[in-house]
TrEMBL record:
PANTHER family from the UniProt entry: SHIKIMATE KINASE, SHIKIMATE KINASE 1, CHLOROPLASTIC
Residues involved in Mg(2+) binding: 20
UniProt organism field: Oceanipulchritudo coccoides
Textual note on the cofactor: Binds 1 Mg(2+) ion per subunit.
Name the record gives this protein: Shikimate kinase
Listed Pfam families: SKI
Keywords: Amino-acid biosynthesis, Aromatic amino acid biosynthesis, ATP-binding, Cytoplasm, Kinase, Magnesium, Metal-binding, Nucleotide-binding, Transferase
Amino acid sequence: MQGKGQPNIYLIGFMGVGKSAVGRNLARAMRMQFIDSDWAIEQVAGKSISKIFKEDGEARFRELEREFVETGHPETGVVVACGGGLPVQPGMSDLLKQKGVVVCLFARPETIMARTIGNPKRPLLNVENPEERITELMAEREPIYMKTGIGVTTDGRGIAEVVSNITRIYRRELRLR
Ligand SMILES: Nc1ncnc2c1ncn2[C@@H]1O[C@H](COP(=O)(O)OP(=O)(O)O)[C@@H](O)[C@H]1O
Ligand SMILES: O=C(O)C1=C[C@@H](OP(=O)(O)O)[C@@H](O)[C@H](O)C1
Ligand SMILES: [Mg+2]
């Protein structure tokens, strides 16, 4: 891989902003490896995200996320799509910034609603009133997202456009290091 040895790129942000879809395409464009933290955790746990939440609880899922960040992925050459709650735990924001270039994707609640509706991978939104849940959770998480990553908006922009924006940000960050 051409991007081997280069600082990792971490994509963070709320559920449905496009971290997984953008990350996969970004990795291809940058010739880097792609890892989705949710996928990696499912491999370690041997079960789906919704089963982990149901059988072991959210706290166990957060522990698996921490293990993934601390020791569960390569130190360089990887585009990591993080689960939406991953940077929110104590200490994770600083850890991610130390490990690589962190980019935070944003989208309006209506966009998030449209992109996440009916997906079993997001038990936190599997509630009677998902709009309300999105608004509450977003308000809680936004300050952490803002202080952790370089912001990129995705409303009304296709995946390719978001990818090329991040590519430019990453090259600029490498020059500044
Ligand atoms: N910029 C975009 N424009 C349109 N659809 C998008 C965009 N980014 C992501 N999507 C779609 O929205 C859904 C959620 O994206 P996903 O990458 O799973 O989000 P996340 O990993 O942030 O939760 C997917 O169906 C994806 O293809
Ligand atoms: O925001 C969250 O707490 C979560 C986001 C999900 O990932 P995506 O952000 O990729 O949807 C997944 O990790 C889990 O359902 C919890
Ligand atoms: Mg994802």
